[in-house]
Amino acid sequence: MPGLVLAAGAATVAAVLWRLNPFAPGSPLPPCPIHALTGLYCPGCGSTRCLYALVHADLPLALAMNPLLVVSLPALGLMTLNAAGWRPRWATPLSRYLANPRYWLWTLLGFAVLRNLPWWPFTWLAPG
User: Fold this and answer.
1) 97: helix, coil or strand?
2) DSSP character at residue 88
3) Predicted TM-score (pTM) of this structure
4) Cα 18 to Cα 16: distance, rounded to the nearest angstrom
5) pLDDT in tens, 46-79
């Protein structure tokens, strides 16, 4: 049952992003509140536009919007399947590593710091 709920949620997100363009002026999809308040890019900034690009099979645009999300999607997918009860033996060591919150904390904090540095090569981590 959890797998069905997750699949339905993913299908709903894909359907919304197929129809609504976050790049369009006046888009009903909200901008990042952290960026709006602070002017800094959070680790999630550009995620909606990244997922929109992936739904439309535009990998270069997706990487330009949020490279960490693109690189993390396979790991997030594996973690989601693991949470839904699918636990193949070959994925057990990797799932244990990915389930460690410290890994994600340091990855997200490091990405947030690096994408806000104002010089090359870190400027390409900012959305757009």
Assistant:
1) helix
2) -
3) 0.87
4) 5
5) 999 999 999 999 999 999 999 999 999 998 888 8
